[in-house]
Design goal:
Layout lengths: L14 H11 L37 E4 L12 E4 L1 H9 L4 H13 L7 H4 L41
Antiparallel strand pairs: 1-2
The structure holds zinc ion (2 copies).
The site of one zinc ion has 8 residues, from helix 2.
């Protein structure tokens, strides 16, 4: 899952191996049984790595989540393999998603694509960062606020005989 710059040093050096082992132990299926809190799957999430996610149809990329959000805590009890949908929802409560996606975009731009970083490129299930929409220029003083031609009421309606 995306790693915030300020948290990078909190991950153990062998985190990629730990994360990979967790995914293998989960048989490459999301192991979330509701920890994500999104409430869209009963029991264990059906999403499998590389297959279409339920609901969205986007390709599932498994990640490894820390239940307590402490990156240095890699005890098996604290780790749950999650699809990106579950992981994003799990992290959302901690206000991490926006920063994580920014970080992921930065890393992608830098070409630093590692195995886990590929997960960062997965489409979020919901747009987190809306692109900035340029504001329309403010009308100059005295300029009409409308662009349509107002109806011309200066002439009386034509009288039919
Ligand atoms: Zn899931
Ligand atoms: Zn879940």
């Amino acid at each position: 899952m995306p790693i915030r710059p300020e948290n990078k040093d909190r991950y153990p050096a062998d985190w990629p191996a730990i994360s990979l082992a967790a995914k293998e132990a989960a048989h490459w299926r999301c192991a979330c049984t509701g920890q994500c809190g999104r409430g869209t799957h009963d029991g264990r999430c059906p999403n499998r790595h590389g297959q279409a996610a339920y609901g969205t149809g986007t390709t599932v990329i498994l990640t490894t989540a820390h239940l307590n959000h402490q990156p240095e805590d890699v005890r098996p009890d604290n780790l749950v393999v999650m699809c990106q949908g579950c992981h994003l929802h799990h992290d959302r409560a901690h206000h991490r998603v926006t920063a994580a996606l920014t970080r992921a975009a930065d890393r992608a731009a830098a070409g630093q694509l590692a195995l886990d970083a590929v997960a960062d490129l997965a489409e979020p299930t919901e747009p987190v960062m809306a692109p900035a929409v340029p504001a329309a220029p403010a009308p100059a003083p005295g300029e009409p606020l409308f662009l349509f031609t107002p109806p011309d009421n200066t002439q009386p309606p034509e009288v039919r005989s």
